Amino acid sequence: MECSNGVWSVLEFELQINSLYYERMGLSSNKEKLSELANINAETIQPVDIIKNPLTFEFLGLPVTALLEENQLEKELIITYD
Q1: Which residue in 48, 51, 55, 68 could disulfide with 72, CB within 3.0 to 4.6 Å?
Q2: DSSP single-letter state for residue 9
Q3: Is 49 helix (H, G, I), strand (E, B) or coil?
Q4: In 3D, which of 47, 46, 49, 73 has the Cα closest to residue 62?
Q5: Which residues lie below 8 Å from residue 45, measured CB to CB, with a gap of 6+?
Q6: How far apart are CA 50 and CA 28, in angstroms?
Q7: What is the pTM of this model?
Q8: Residue 43 in contact with residue 9, Cβ under 8 Å?
Q9: Any residues with CB less than 8 A from the CB of 13 and at least 6 apart, and which?
Q10: Backbone angles phi and psi of 67, in degrees to 5
Q11: H helices present in the chain, as ranges
Q12: Does residue 8 register a pLDDT over 70?
């Protein structure tokens, strides 16, 4: 719930897990303040950031700078696994 409410990135979520956020939240007498502190410096993700995530298909052997249309990429994937 905290991850969803805070709109945390995967990296931020892992950081909170490793810092025992869940346990600290359970033991905290002021849960709202702890949640606020966790979200102040949290790395958040916006919907537009999801689109910006690059996909790498180095196993296709395409040039690094290749820009492909979706149908071209589909053909390359089909040829590779056919």
Answers
A1: 68
A2: -
A3: helix
A4: 73
A5: 7, 8, 9, 10
A6: 33
A7: 0.42
A8: yes
A9: 3
A10: -110, 120
A11: 2-6, 10-18, 21-27, 31-40, 47-52, 70-81
A12: yes
Place of tokens 């409410």: 5
Residues in the chain, how many? 82
Output the six-digit token pair for 27.
């033991």
Let me know: does 38 contact 13? Beta carbons within 8 Å: no
CA distance 54 to 11: 16
- Is the CB of residue 8 less than 8 Å from the CB of residue 42? yes
At 27-53, the pLDDT tens digits run: 888 888 777 777 777 776 676 666 665
Give burial (CB, 10 Å; 0-12/13-18/19+) of 7.
middle
Domain boundaries, the chain: 2-45, 52-81
Between CA 82 and CA 22 the distance in angstroms is 46
